[in-house]
């Protein structure tokens, strides 16, 4: 037990000893006060340490955040059995060993049954409150941990997305300069035309590279212009065929995806007038396909893999739809998803954060209401029991408010922790998680 818990037990012992000394002790002297303080301390520390041990043991073996249902059952069973044993032990030490007002036989007879039963109920109420408090603290820790993890994931995703986009600018420039360098030696006049056209294309690269998605129409227009540049260099060695459905033009793809894939085709295949490289760009079942006849050239050095890997990773950060790659002896094909809507990672995160905040706010309100009800029950019912036993011990009327209110508290607990809206949300979340795991398994 922590130092804070020991201090609380000390003040509880002092408070209860003063209460019993002032209202239930006939001879008010220092000796009787010490005896009262000793008895109160015995109850407080034995019950406190016993319940703390049970709670700590269950926290290690069955954490609230991981096994809520099992933990609830085990907590109820353990506090009933544990407090039954602890209260009987404390009462035995008090009445038989310290005050010596009862023998062992009379203590375990019906004579002290009411006293033991009363003390067990008080201990159970206090223990239930302490376990509920422990659950609340565990819930807060888990919630804070989840919030921190989600923020880290969001920051990591944003940083990764920015890093991927920043690859596009130098990558395009490097490859274009390589083409220009080759043209200067092969055909200076074509190199001049290439330089003029490259400036127009590079402007598009600068405008679009920071966007998450662009329309298929814009990407196709850019790809056609880029293909004209490639034709400037390779002439009849490369041929391009565009066959994209008109209805797909207003949909979205990752910017510069076609340019990167066209570069891959040129980079990994040889092209001659006798064996031209034929590249087809067409749409098929919500995908934009780039296909070329396979004429693989020997790689002098290992490829950096920026182009295709960049597209795959950017799509992974925006959608669950995968980029598909098909390869045979005759052709190589890449299929990139065409998206109907234009998602925004920032807006999605902000919406999720707002929804999470509202749900958390609602949850805290529900928990606050329940624990307020529980605290009131644990405070008022023992007071009513004490009044009943003092002024009318033969007429035990405290059963009615204790049972009636207790049923209300139990019902409230089921609404907050077990059934009702919270239970529905929990089940919906479980089903969604299972579906998500199933979908991820199918994608792999």
UniProtKB/TrEMBL annotation:
Signal peptide: none annotated. One of its GO terms (cellular component) is membrane. Pfam families: 2TM (PF13239), His_kinase (PF06580). The chain crosses the membrane at residues 7-24, 30-53, 73-95, 115-135, 370-391, 397-419. InterPro entries: 2TM_dom, Bact_2-comp_sensor_kinase, MFS_trans_sf, Sig_transdc_His_kin_internal. It comes from the Bacteria. One of its GO terms (molecular function) is phosphorelay sensor kinase activity. Keywords: Kinase, Membrane, Transferase, Transmembrane, Transmembrane helix. The keyword Transmembrane helix applies. Residues 358-433 form the 2TM domain. Residues 159-237 form the Signal transduction histidine kinase internal region domain. This is Histidine kinase.
